[in-house]
Design a protein that fits this description.
The structure holds two protein chains of two kinds.
Chain A lengths: L6 E12 L2 E13 L4 E6 L5 H8 L7 E11 L5 E3 L8 H6 L4 E4 L3 H4 L6 H12 L4 H14 L5 H4 L9 H12 L6 E5 L7 H18 L2 E6 L2 H7 L2 E6 L2 E7 H6 L4 H8 L50 E3 L5 E3 L6
Parallel strand pairs in A: 3-8, 3-9, 6-7, 7-8
Antiparallel strand pairs in A: 1-2, 1-4, 4-5, 9-10, 10-12, 11-12
Helix pairs in contact in A: 4-5, 5-7, 7-8
Chain B lengths: L9 E16 L4 E17 L3 E5 L6 H8 L7 E7 L5 E3 L5 H7 L3 E4 L13 H11 L5 H14 L16 H13 L5 E5 L7 H18 L2 E6 L2 H7 L2 E6 L2 E7 H6 L4 H9 L5 H6 L30 H5 L5 E3 L3 E3 L17
Parallel strand pairs in B: 3-8, 3-9, 6-7, 7-8
Antiparallel strand pairs in B: 1-2, 1-4, 4-5, 9-10, 10-12, 11-12
Helix pairs in contact in B: 3-4, 3-5, 4-5, 5-6
């Protein structure tokens, strides 16, 4: 593991054994995160973005098998934890979750407990990971709510999730995730269920907290607009593969993988130029039980090379500025 | 509003549409007020154009569309629809039997392609159901029509004996479109019809809708919360906030310079898929949250979040008024404001 990285995922493969056959949900994903860096992961549904994130928490579904690869996390004291080698319920994992890695989810109503007040839920996290007194816990919880800009934090502590609006619930969840000063925050589509004006507020909040606390963030989304606003680096996923990873500007202005290019052309740009038609990507995402041979994107790729792309799995090609893409076009 | 001038080429005109849902409480179920889901909404749609309606959740977009097709019984206002023979019908006073005839001309496409198709019906049954409803019973005629419709929306007619579960989200949305087209409608209300789809599939569906519009001269009411999508597909845009229409304008001038402060706030909040423009954007974000339609303030519903609000705004609710260029706005101060549009140049 490189010295300056906080998280490193190497060659991760996850599959599900099902009655209908094996689903290879994640096939060789590689990425790393530096302290204080925001990594955006984009992809369509079923591309394996959430699964990759859940592997960092060692919280994969029980029927999932990791067939290859490793996930390594560097704690703030320098110790490196090999997450997938740990047992799901081990002391080390429990210390990591909530303590060193915070997580926020798409739907706060299902992620928060409906029968405990917001204050109680934050204090539970605090009592598990710190040795603060009861009184200090209440103060810390109120501070956290103030930090996520909730009005009247002392009163808010007593509220239950159903009494709050979607935006406020998401703020409460962020407060909970940040309660123990994590060095890495996993955000899995945290703004997808929110309205645009609320989404903008939450994105602003995450960005300012990220800056203030200097934590690393992994931000999963399917929205390229959100990625452009929040990410330093971006990883584009397709059918369980990270097909391209690069700095945000390189992804948008100098994409190397045909899938990245095609995706960027198929979103309306809001640039005042009337286009008659949106560019589309031919066909559909293939059935995960029957992944295409060779490059997984070749069935829909406009630049596929017969013979090569249909039979050989492309290796990662590295470019300047840490850009990497998995495509035969760039291989000599 | 006094009266909007409805142009001659209009297909639908809506005047002061009101849809209130009573809130009942207690043992006797007494009415304790109402959720004003749609309140005083007036607009028209020209034949062959696409009117996009944007707004946040709970702003009354879907309710407006549903009331328009009389899926809800509006509590007030007037909806008029011009049938293909050029005769105007007042939909608010039609009986169910009369509506049934008129619904041939007006159809709806729904948001969730998983929930809007009966899982126990085959494609043939699903798509032919509207035809059977108007009395077509000849089996081979039905099959021919369905095959024709399926190929029109880009599905293979051979699949007509299969069930919806065999199809992906994008394909199911096409089945919904085929169903809506079965009776050759002139008007289609599309309620968030691409919101549940992935980027590349959404683009395919939007292109299909535009092609069909060109081929069949369809008129669309396109409801969405995605402003970039609305910019792409709409000729004109209506913005709703807390059950009221706050602005109607043609797409280009709306994005260049909105007239209502809420429209400005919406435009400032859209995430732009372009990192350089995203960084350059100055963020004037609105504070607070959407007003509760069950408990609307006396004045303008947006006043508590509006940076330009004056005392007048908290006291009285502005009317939707026509301004230059056929635009409509509901704001006391719109004439004095110079609002920021979507910043195109970077």
């Amino acid at each position: 593991m490189q010295d300056e990285t906080i998280l490193e995922i190497t060659d991760l493969n996850i599959c599900f054994e099902m009655r209908e056959g094996t689903v290879n949900a994640v096939n060789g994903v590689n990425f790393s995160v530096k302290p204080g860096e925001v990594l955006g992961i984009v992809g369509e549904s079923g591309s394996g973005k959430s699964l990759s994130a859940r592997s960092i928490m060692n919280l994969l579904p029980r029927n999932a098998t990791v067939t290859n690869g490793s996930v390594k996390f560097r704690k703030s004291d320098g110790e490196v934890v090999d997450i997938l080698a740990e047992k799901r319920e081990s002391r080390k994992m429990r210390e990591l979750r909530g303590g060193h890695v915070g997580m926020i989810f798409q739907e706060p109503m299902t992620a928060l407990s409906p029968v405990h007040s917001i204050g109680k839920q934050i204090m539970t996290t605090l009592s598990l990971h710190t040795d603060l007194s009861k009184k200090a816990q209440v103060e810390r919880a109120a501070d956290l709510l103030a930090m996520v800009q909730m009005p009247k934090p002392m009163e808010m502590l007593k509220k239950y999730p159903h009494q709050l609006s979607g935006g406020m619930r998401q703020r409460a969840m962020i407060a909970m995730a940040l309660s123990c000063n994590p060095s890495l925050l996993l955000a899995d589509e945290p703004t997808t269920a929110l309205d645009v004006t609320t989404e903008a507020q939450i994105l602003d909040l995450i960005m300012s907290l990220q800056d203030e606390l200097n934590m690393a963030v992994i931000f999963i989304t399917h929205n390229f607009g959100v990625v452009a606003e929040i990410a330093d680096r971006v990883s584009v996923m397709y059918l369980g593969n990270a097909v391209e990873t690069a700095a945000v500007d390189d992804i948008f202005y100098n994409p190397k993988h045909p899938y990245t290019r095609a995706l960027l052309q198929s979103i309306p740009r809001l640039d005042g130029q009337k286009r008659r038609r949106l560019q589309t990507i031919e066909g559909m995402v293939p059935d995960p039980f029957n992944l295409p041979t060779g490059c997984v994107f070749h069935t829909r790729c406009a630049e596929k090379m017969a013979g090569k792309c249909t039979s050989q799995i492309p290796e990662l090609t590295y470019f300047e500025n840490d850009q990497m893409a998995r495509c035969h076009l760039h291989q000599a | 509003m006094t009266n909007i001038h409805v142009p001659d080429d209009a297909l639908i005109s809506v005047e002061k549409l009101q849809m209130h849902f009573p809130i009942k409480k207690g043992f006797l179920g007494r009415e304790q007020g109402a959720v004003k889901a749609v309140d005083d909404v007036s607009f028209y749609i020209r034949k062959g154009e696409t009117l996009g309606i944007v707004g946040e959740s709970g702003s009354g977009k879907s309710t407006t569309a549903r009331a328009l097709l009389r899926a809800y019984e509006p509590t007030g206002g007037k909806i008029r629809f011009k049938d293909p023979d050029g005769v105007w019908h007042d939909l608010t006073h039609k009986s169910e039997a009369e509506m049934r005839k008129l619904r041939q001309h007006m159809q709806m496409i729904f948001q969730d392609p998983y929930a809007s198709l009966n899982p126990r019906m085959t494609l043939l049954q699903l798509v032919s159901e509207p035809l059977v409803n108007i009395g077509v019973t000849n089996k081979s005629e039905l099959e021919d029509r369905v095959a024709d419709l399926l190929s029109k929306v880009g599905l293979r007619p051979e699949n007509m004996s299969r069930y919806p579960h065999a199809f992906s989200g994008g394909q199911r949305q096409r089945i919904g479109i085929a169903r809506a087209l079965a009776l050759n409608p002139t008007f289609i209300a599309a309620d968030e019809s691409v919101s549940a789809l992935d980027v590349s599939i959404a683009a395919q569906t939007i292109n299909l809708l535009q092609d069909l519009q060109e081929q069949m001269g369809l008129t669309y009411l396109f409801i969405t919360h995605d402003l970039s999508m609305v910019e792409h597909i709409s000729d004109r845009i209506g913005v709703m906030y807390a059950g009221r229409l706050v602005e109607v304008a043609d797409t280009a001038s709306f994005f260049e310079q909105p007239l209502h402060p809420y429209s400005e706030a919406l435009l400032a909040a859209i995430p732009i898929p372009d990192p350089k423009r995203a960084r350059a954007k100055k963020r004037g974000l609105v504070k607070g949250e959407v007003a509760d339609p069950a408990n609307l303030p006396v004045g303008c519903a947006f006043a508590s979040r509006c940076p330009h609000a004056s005392e007048l705004c908290h006291m009285s609710n502005p009317e939707l008024t026509e301004t230059a260029g056929g635009r409509f706005v509901r704001c006391h101060h719109s004439a004095d404001l110079k609002l920021q549009g979507a910043n195109y140049d970077q």
